[in-house]
Amino acid sequence: MSITASQNQSLSAGGRPATGGRERTVRVWDPLVRIFHWSLVLGIALAWLSSEGWDRTHEITGYIIAGLIGFRLLWGIVGGKYARFAQFVRGPRVTIAYLKDILSGRAKRHLGHNPAGAAMIVALLFSVATTCMTGWMMSWDAFWGAQWLEELHEGAATFILLLVGLHVAGVVHASLSHRENLVRAMFTGRKRL
After folding, report:
1. With 0-12 CB in 10 A as exposed, 13-18 as middle and 19+ as buried, what is 186?
2. What CA–CA distance (Å, rounded) separates 30 from 51?
3. pLDDT of residue 21
4. Nearest Cα to 178, choosing from 114, 100, 99?
5. What confidence tens digit (pLDDT) does each residue in 58-74 have?
6. SS3 of 124, please?
7. Intra-chain end-to-end CA distance of the chain, in Å
8. Residue 28: CA atoms inside 13 Å, Cβ hemisphere, count?
């Protein structure tokens, strides 16, 4: 959701809400979205660190991450306004146009996820789900010792790291461009109105 004309009228010249010095905020991300986000961050870090030699920890972490992904897919359908995929996932045309706006310095601020952030969420969910699924399949008798499956699992896990790097860069860019701390917002759930 981008800022509407009526919301823009209530902003002072400095881009801050005209409320006598205090910023007005609105809750955007509910507690379950925030808990999911930070749990996934910790889970991916633990899975990566336990991938060499800590097989049981790695496996348990993978199952926890798979549960988190299952929860987020469900919450993306039945959750609150800003948690629902229908609110923020856009098609390729809108996403590409938004990326062009970023490059030209004209990207609009969104109260929820912007189109580039939404595409990142979809890519991360898919990559993490692929990593979990291939890890689980490696425990099946039918795929025991299958080299191609192990390579797919490791490739998907490595791709997650690339996506995480791009995600962090996008958060830093959006925070600086729109003068708001998105990391803090993912802890508090609140963003500037």
Report:
1. middle
2. 32
3. 54
4. 114
5. 999 999 999 999 999 99
6. helix
7. 11
8. 23
pLDDT per position as a tens digit, 12-51: 333 444 444 567 888 878 899 999 999 999 999 999 889 8
Query: Considering all CA atoms of the chain, what is the largest pairwise distance in Å, rounded to the nearest integer?
Result: 67
Sort residue 21 into left (φ over 0), alpha (ψ -120 to 50) or beta: left
Tell me the C-alpha distance between 12 and 185, whole Å. 21
Threshold 0.90, pTM exceeds: no
Whether the predicted pLDDT of 109 surpasses 60: yes
3-class secondary structure, 190: strand
Give the 3-state secondary structure of residue 91.
coil
Domains and their CATH numbers in the chain: 31-180 (1.20.950)
